[in-house]
Amino acid sequence: MTPAVEADGLGKQYGSRVALDSLTFSVAAGEVLGVLGPNGAGKTTAIRVLTTILPASRGRFSVAGVPHTRAADIRRLVGVLPESAGYPARQTGEEYLRYFARLFGYSRASARVLAEALLAQVGLSERRTSLIAGYSRGMRQRLGIARALVNDPQVVFLDEPTLGLDPAGQRQVLALVRRITAERGATVLLSTHLLAEVEQVCSRVLILNRGRLAAEGTVSEISRRAAAPRSARLRVSAENVDRARATLGGSAGIEHVEPGDGQVGSLIVMLDGPGSPTSMNDGLRALADADVPVLSFELEGARLSDAFLAMTEEA
Amino acid sequence: MAASARTMSKRHRRGWAIVGEQELRDLWLGGRGLLLALAFSVLVSVIAYLTATNQALNFLEQRESVNLTLQVAIAMGSLLALLAAADAVSGERERSTLESLLLTPVSRLDLTGGKLVAALSLWLAAFVITIPYVWFLGRGIDLVADAVITGVVVGTLLAVFLASLGIVISIFANSNRVSLSVSLFLLLAIFAPTQLPSSAQKGWAGELLLRVNPLTAGEHYAGKILVNGHSWSEDISWLISPIVAAAVFSAIAAIVGARCIRLGRGATE
Q1: What integer is the mean pLDDT of A93-115?
Q2: A106, B12: Cβ pair inside 8 Å?
Q3: Size of interface A-B (CB pairs under 8 A)
Q4: Neighbouring residues of B50: CB distance < 8 A, sequence distance ≥ 6
């Protein structure tokens, strides 16, 4: 099966500054790929090269099976929400979408139908005749996503879609991303530096750092690869703290247990040497046998955020 | 959903027409065009009043009144086209709306063409506003038809030249401020020869200067027809410069537009 996006040795240089260096990866059709990286990692440059807005300095790529040499054909097959996209303040949401539909070849009548359908899909039907100037940032981002879907794209590139949104706005946008793949079967490349977003919606992750590919894989693969767990944080009820400490202290693979800071009943469990995701299983089993209810549990150093920090700091 | 709505236009319109239509909507329904047209009509009213009163006091002949008003209208109408064109690409870049446009399958040449059409609409509106004033000033001397035709020909050539120049500047400028400043500076440089003393406009060097500059050449041609009563063909050589400028700069705008419209600075991470 042809990958939805395939990049081979992709490079982009601005004068002597290297923005992208030998980027090689592929994305399967229907996948949601998270493109992670700190500011200046090359995420936006990668998206602009893949969407043919910027020419690559080196390497080749294809999008939806179309080689990079056919830029106009690629543009027909992709939908893009650029980073910090601007919107014409004096147009209504409906006029804006109708205009882009017409630029993609729709007739006047079908552009109107499409605009209404897309506005309904992103939850902006009630504001369709309002000027964009009156839209909140979250509404503008949803309008931008609707515009990215105007041509029924096979691959959707979303560059920092939740930037500057409040938690409710972020949730709405992420729900939209999930719907794009579920209902349309489109492939999504989601560029972000918010790790929670990636953990919520992405099936695979690409970590960029200083224009280079630092890691690639599923969220759990990358978390495992980058940082083996060395401790765990768990919480039990206040009356069970002493019993939990005694039970865990006698379990295999646990060096010692100390009180956690902050919440009542919080404990930090130090593992005996570099652990694995199953390092705490014996201890948890012992707590269950001792009838100590565990209110919360998390392995430290096994989260994507730890992996991200480890990989971007290493490089 | 999208598939059902995806009924492509049977007569697929050219991209420039779609871009042009939207640009015209933004310009005129957005209010900017109307505001500029209002300012223009106030200016032409003042000029017409002054020339009419001078005419009444016998300081100006009726033909000269028509010519003066028409020349101001041509110059200011072209200036409006230049201002609109100077905002065309740099404005999109500054408002961060350019990237979305470049991501559509519409060619960059079509984008340039659509924006040029919208800019020229300001000249057209300015000229339509001028016609009643020309009619009023020229009534009774059978000059209105000549003035309208001369105005359309000379004004359109100059508007195409200046709007194309504005688009080219806008494509290379990274901000609207730079684009508008450079455009106005060049316009002043083009206007400058019209302010030379008449002694400096004589002799072969003076005539060459007038002939080479599209603005002075066009206005000279209009003056010969409207004030001196020359025929259309008698001084046609004075139209060479406006014709060449309009043709060359619209070709440059087309080439530069097709090849050089980029996101500009700030397009990197």
Answers
A1: 96
A2: no
A3: 106
A4: none
A74 Cβ contact partners less than 8 Å away, ≥ 6 residues apart: A51, A52, A63, A64, A66, A68
DSSP states along A239-308: GGHHHHHHHHHTSTTEEEEEEPSSSTTEEEEEESSS--TTTTHHHHHHHHHTT--EEEEEEET-SHHHHH
Q: Which amino acid is at A17?
A: R
Output b/e per residue, B216-248; b: 16+ Cβ within 10 A.
Answer: bbbbbbbbbbbeeeeeeeebeebbebbbebbee
Query: Is the torsion defined by CA of A128, A130, A131, A133 positive or negative?
Result: negative
Say how far apart CA A211 and CA A21 lie, in whole Å: 5
- CA atoms of B199 and B190, how far apart (whole Å): 19
Model ipTM value: 0.86
Q: Which amino acid is at A52?
A: T
Question: Which residue type occupies A100?
Answer: F
Report pLDDT digits (tens) over A51-71.
999 999 999 999 999 999 999
- Mark which residues 19-78 of A lie under 8 Å from B by CB: 19, 39-45, 48, 51, 53-54, 72, 75-76, 78
User: In this complex, which of A53, A91, A114 lies closest to B102 when CB atoms are compared?
Assistant: A53
By C-alpha distance, the chain B residue nearest A12 is B268
The stretch A96-110 carries a mean pLDDT of: 95
Instruction: Decide: helix, strand or coil at residue A67.
Output: strand
| H-type alpha helices, chain B | 2-5, 15-24, 32-56, 62-86, 88-94, 98-102, 108-138, 144-172, 176-191, 203-212, 214-226, 240-260
Q: What is the pLDDT of residues B62-101, one digit of tens each?
A: 888 999 999 999 999 999 999 999 999 999 999 999 999 9
Q: Domain boundaries in chain A?
A: 5-217, 226-302
CATH fold group of domain A226-302:
Alpha-Beta Plaits (3.30.70)
Measured between CA atoms, the residue of chain B closest to residue A111 is B5
A70 CB neighbour count, 10 Å cutoff: 14
Contact A33, A63 (CB under 8 A): no
Q: Taking the CB of residue A171, how many other CB atoms lie within 10 A of it? A: 14
Q: At A143, is the secondary structure helix, strand, or coil?
A: helix
Q: What is the layout of strands, in order, in the sheet containing A17-27?
A: A17-27, A5-14, A58-63, A66-67
Query: From CA A285, how far away is CA A124, in angstroms rounded?
Result: 50
pLDDT in tens, A148-175: 999 999 999 999 998 888 888 888 888 9
Q: How many CB atoms lie within 10 A of CB A231?
A: 19
- Categorize the per-residue pLDDT at B7 as very low, low, confident or very high, splitting at 50, 70 and 90: very low
Looking at per-residue pLDDT, the higher value among B233 and A226 belongs to B233
Kindly report the CATH number that applies to the domain delimited by A5-217.
3.40.50.300
CA-CA distances (angstroms) from residue B120 to B19, B77, B84, B138, B201?
A: 14, 9, 8, 26, 31
B111 residue type, one letter: L
**Is the CB of B8 inside 8 Å of chain A's CB atoms?**
yes
Asked if B2 lies within 8 A of A102 by C-beta distance, the reply is: no
Point out the residue among B7, B96, B267 whose CB comes nearest to the CB of A110: B7
